[in-house]
Amino acid sequence: MNVDPFSLPLSGPLVTARETISQRSGFVVRYDHRGETGVGEATPLPGWTESLDDCQRGLDDATTVAADGGHTDVLLSLDAASVPAARHGFATALLDADAKADSVPLYQWFDSDRHCNRVPVNATVGDGPPDETAAAVERAVAAGYDCCKLKVGKRTVDEDIERVRTVRERVDEDVTVRADANGAWSHEEAADAIDRLAPLDVSYVEQPLPADDLTGHAELRGNGVGIALDESLVGRRVDSVLDADAADVLILKPMVLGGPGNAHTLALRAREQGVEPVVTTTIDAVVARLAALHVAAAIPDVAACGLATGDRLAADLAPDPTTVTDGSMSVPQSAGLGIDPTEVETDA
């Protein structure tokens, strides 16, 4: 097991719950298994996963375990609840090697009966004024996207409703519109917003309330706009969210959940309970984006996912083998993730 650090500049600042960051730093993990070298990525994100230092300590400990034990011992040493990004890095490398050894793309390693060439993806639009927001959506639709997610919550509810209304006046009704409040609303504001968003045919609102308010989210359901939970999955078992009937949609980030395997398992569990999974990245480099893409590709009839995030990076670890055309992302059909570990350079 080899671990190499990297740092990649962003094309523009990324605002998180804790800070504004200008680069994504993490670790490339390589692991030899079944005669193949698998590659993984551990890229922690403040507010979502462990810190960079904790990620490194987790991977250092795992490297020591790997020197004396097998991959099962390594996985057991990496707790998804405390070091999810570190576990994601190793788990992805292990799965990449397994899929290569079996001569199948990773999504078919999850489901051997699946064949998927493309996964639908959404465009994300910031929180600009109404005309600016609508213009950005129009550009996305012209580029082929039929699903757009609007950032809301930083402005008043009245202002956000006007933004969504302006978008709806500019684009056809067959364009799916989602909203992401990042937990910014009170229960009263969220109820008001949902009541006014329903006639505007908004598919769902992502994280309308703070992460801990599962009861509040459950009460918001059934009012004409779906409820999607994202931040509520951080540091909490997904079973507790499902048991609370708090969501119509789960936003699954493999980096936050401890690896692609965990994300795929949770997606199937959600489906069994009538909750739709949507797979997204945490603004990762190409290795982790591919892992998330394969998770989405293994889910039948998956809704548009938040995977088209490569343009948020000014540089990457390797050439991206995927393309985004007409609102969907191509899925590599070569074995494993679809990337050659020798092309992954941490000094990019």
TrEMBL record:
InterPro entries, per database record: Enolase-like_C_sf (IPR036849), Enolase-like_N (IPR029017), Enolase_C-like (IPR029065), Mandel_Rmase/mucon_lact_enz_CS (IPR018110), Mandelate_racemase_C (IPR013342), OSB_synthase_MenC1 (IPR010196), OSBS_N (IPR041338)
Cofactor(s) this protein cannot do without: a divalent metal cation
Annotated catalytic residues: 151 (proton donor), 253 (proton acceptor)
Region annotated Disordered, chain positions: 319-348
Pathway: Quinol/quinone metabolism; 1,4-dihydroxy-2-naphthoate biosynthesis; 1,4-dihydroxy-2-naphthoate from chorismate: step 4/7; Quinol/quinone metabolism; menaquinone biosynthesis
Residue ranges occupied by any Mandelate racemase/muconate lactonizing enzyme C-terminal domain in the UniProt entry: 130-227
Entries under CDD domains matching the protein: OSBS (cd03320)
UniProt-listed Enzyme Commission number(s): 4.2.1.113
Family, as annotated: Belongs to the mandelate racemase/muconate lactonizing enzyme family. MenC type 1 subfamily.
Identification of the protein by name: o-succinylbenzoate synthase
